[in-house]
UniProtKB/TrEMBL annotation:
<dbReference type="GO" id="GO:0005315">
    <property type="term" value="F:phosphate transmembrane transporter activity"/>
</dbReference>
<keyword id="KW-0472">Membrane</keyword>
<feature type="transmembrane region" description="Helical">
    <location>
        <begin position="20"/>
        <end position="49"/>
    </location>
</feature>
<feature type="transmembrane region" description="Helical">
    <location>
        <begin position="100"/>
        <end position="120"/>
    </location>
</feature>
<keyword id="KW-0592">Phosphate transport</keyword>
<keyword id="KW-0769">Symport</keyword>
<keyword id="KW-0813">Transport</keyword>
<dbReference type="InterPro" id="IPR004738">
    <property type="entry name" value="Phos_permease"/>
</dbReference>
<dbReference type="Pfam" id="PF00083">
    <property type="entry name" value="Sugar_tr"/>
</dbReference>
<feature type="transmembrane region" description="Helical">
    <location>
        <begin position="126"/>
        <end position="147"/>
    </location>
</feature>
<feature type="transmembrane region" description="Helical">
    <location>
        <begin position="412"/>
        <end position="436"/>
    </location>
</feature>
<dbReference type="InterPro" id="IPR036259">
    <property type="entry name" value="MFS_trans_sf"/>
</dbReference>
<dbReference type="GO" id="GO:0016020">
    <property type="term" value="C:membrane"/>
</dbReference>
<keyword id="KW-1133">Transmembrane helix</keyword>
<comment type="similarity">
    <text>Belongs to the major facilitator superfamily. Phosphate:H(+) symporter (TC 2.A.1.9) family.</text>
</comment>
<dbReference type="GO" id="GO:0015293">
    <property type="term" value="F:symporter activity"/>
</dbReference>
<keyword id="KW-0812">Transmembrane</keyword>
Length: 532
């Protein structure tokens, strides 16, 4: 038996990295591309929606979304995402990763299109319809997080001893597609806006309030939201052709014959059902007895791990989503984006999209790919700890001399430091909080635990999207009331709060183990003998 097992491992080892792994990265990664596009493109168009639907006749400044509407439009997708992560993570461990994978993508396609078709007789009905479909869009996106991570974790480790050295890079490459999704959101907004600006030129609001928002501007935000359905639709066919992960089939479904067939197809080596059974760590004398999520055995083995993965993801997303969703407001506050009344509605969208695309290009995207290149060299723990630490440092560098950065001529320095916080978020905890939960939990609970960790992160995103919107308002009641908000603590103090979240994330990182160079069974401890 030992010889047969070594034969299996030798066959798997000789397979090394296969073309299938890169195919899986693209297929799973396009889901994350779509996720990021759909979640963040809304921040580009909220000011335009405010102008289209909430500009009052005779007003001295362009219309904007009321506080409660703005919070709902920005945050409702994250409520859906949180729900979807818990539900689809649980469902993926019950019926299989593949069975649920296509369902999430189909939901995203339908709701992306429906979001752009949010019509109504009044602004309130349009916003209500938009929020309804964005909730269900978020629900589908939520399923993509645990399933994509688990599929890549299971798939890249089928060649156990060969690919455990590159597993982190494969999963990170899937997640790095988020960066291109954010970048695509800005690029699509710039392209569509440029076309409409050239076809329907409009004067600044200060020159002609009524003409500054042409009727055709209502189509612009709808087209930007609907574009998210395109990459999802292109991916759907290939996602349905992916086999179920062999680890789920062998360990959870206990179908060694099916697992052997899938492994043979994927790795291009001949593997029999008997060999797959012997390669599986289930029901062998050295294997622990199955235990549930709420069992004492799980708490003993993974209780602190779950606390670490949930808390660090929560804290990261409070800071990350606050910065991402409201960077246009921060850039306006420091004067990097011109005052709204000096531009037409489409000019304002163009400037916002250009600013956010520049940040994505210089900070967000490079950070993701630094993680891909170095995660299996440096390790998850060091990247996450260093990322949280540097985020704290740069946020303090923005907050302490905030008055200096808002002075004329100093905005570029602020933008550079702001971009560096995004760089170290992505070359840091934004990537590792996604990767580690896919590696350290048992196969039968892997998607569930990843879903719980990711849902905790989305609680942070909800706190960031709803809380930062109010906190960042001026502490001067008159200035805050002018925008329809109660007084807040201001942008400077909000940056101090985000720095505090990052510092706490750094400390809680010490609860998370280092999976670099270890197999999934070593990390999940599935080969240990159960405790009596």
């Amino acid at each position: 038996m030992a010889g047969d097992q070594m034969h299996v491992l030798s066959a798997l080892d000789s397979a090394k990295t296969q073309w299938y792994h890169f195919t899986a990265i693209v297929i799973a990664g396009m889901g994350f591309f779509t996720d990021a596009y759909d979640l963040f493109c809304i921040s580009l168009v909220t000011k335009l929606i405010g102008r289209v639907y909430y500009t009052a006749d005779g007003a001295s400044k362009p219309g904007s979304l009321p506080p409660n509407v703005s919070a709902a439009v920005n945050g409702v997708a994250f409520v859906g995402t949180l729900t979807g992560q818990l539900f689809f993570g649980w469902l993926g461990d019950r019926v299989g990763r593949k069975s649920v994978y296509g369902m999430t993508l189909l939901l995203m396609i339908i709701c992306s299109v429906a979001s752009g078709l949010s019509f109504g007789d009044t602004p309130t009905s349009v916003m209500a319809t938009l929020c309804f479909f964005r909730f269900w869009l978020g629900f589908g996106i939520g399923g993509d997080y645990p399933l994509s991570a688990t599929i890549m974790s299971d798939a890249t480790i089928m060649s156990e001893y060969a690919n455990k050295r590159t597993r982190g890079a494969f999963i990170a490459a899937v997640f790095a597609m988020q960066g291109f999704g954010i970048l695509a959101g800005g690029a699509v907004a710039i392209g569509i806006t440029a076309i409409f600006r050239s076809r329907f030129p409009a004067p600044p609001f200060a020159a002609d309030p009524a003409a500054s928002t042409p009727p055709q501007a209502d189509y612009v935000w709808r087209l930007i939201l609907m574009f998210g359905a395109l990459p999802a639709a292109l991916t759907f066919y290939w996602r349905m052709r992916m086999p179920e992960t062999a680890r789920y089939t062998a360990i959870v479904a206990k179908n060694a014959e099916r697992a052997a067939a899938d492994m043979s197809k994927v790795l291009q080596v001949k593997i029999t059902a008997e060999q797959a059974e012997m390669a599986s760590p289930v029901d062998k004398p050295f294997t622990s007895k199955p235990f549930g999520l709420f069992s004492g055995e799980f708490a003993r083995r993974h209780g602190f791990h779950l606390l670490g993965t949930t808390s660090t993801w929560l804290l990261l997303d409070i800071a990350y989503y606050s910065q991402n969703l409201f960077q246009k407001d921060i850039f306006s506050a420091i004067g990097w984006i011109p005052e709204a009344k000096t531009m037409s509605a489409l000019d304002e969208l163009y400037h916002i999209a250009r600013a956010q695309t520049l940040i994505a290009l210089c900070g967000t995207v490079p950070g993701y790919w630094f993680t891909v290149a170095l995660i299996d060299v440096v390790g998850r723990f060091k990247i996450q700890a260093a990322g949280f630490f540097m985020m704290t440092a740069f946020m303090l560098a923005l907050a302490v001399p905030y008055d200096h950065w808002t002075a004329a001529g100093n905005q570029i320095g602020f933008v550079v430091l702001y971009a560096l916080t995004f760089f170290f978020a992505n070359f840091g905890p934004n990537a590792t909080t996604f990767i580690v939960p896919a590696e350290i939990y048992p196969a039968r609970l892997r998607a569930t635990c990843h879903g719980i960790s990711a849902a905790s992160g989305k609680v942070g995103a909800i706190v960031g999207s709803f809380g930062f919107l109010y906190l960042a308002q001026s502490p001067d009641p008159a200035k805050a009331a002018a925008h329809g908000y109660p007084p807040g603590i201001g942008v400077r103090n909000s940056l101090f709060a985000l720095a505090g979240c990052s510092l706490l994330g750094f400390l809680l990182t010490f609860l998370v183990p280092e999976p670099k160079g270890k197999s999934l069974e070593e990390m999940s401890r599935e080969n240990e003998v159960g405790q009596p």
